[in-house]
Amino acid sequence: MAEPPFTSLRYPLAVDPARGRLGQEQDFDAHVEQLVMQVLLTAPGERINRPDFGCGVKRLVFAPGGEVAATLAQATIYQALTTWLGDVITVTEVTARADDAALLVRIGYAVKVLGQRRYLNLRVTP
């Protein structure tokens, strides 16, 4: 059975120069990954109508303590993803490790609709 067509706005928001309109995403897996990135990179208070949205992983790079900051990042990321994307994904793993002036994050999740596991590796630097 063929999958039904899927279309959403591409993140980050951009204009498709060939069409002269907003860029669209046709791939559901890429759409879910974009949703995860939005939650990760949006700092709480950044969205006017949703001040609690996001986890602000970039600000966690500056938190003192190295491994303490990494543990805080794990808890913050897990909580934000389950709160904001709990109906789309099931978070199976979040690991964070401090590496000099960077934070190495690995997120494992399952896309509920497709039943597929995905992993996202992210290196967050100031």
UniProtKB/TrEMBL annotation:
SUPFAM superfamilies: gpW/gp25-like (SSF160719). InterPro entries: IraD/Gp25-like. Residues 28-112 form the IraD/Gp25-like domain. It comes from the Bacteria. Pfam families: GPW_gp25. This is IraD/Gp25-like domain-containing protein. It comes from Novosphingobium sediminis.
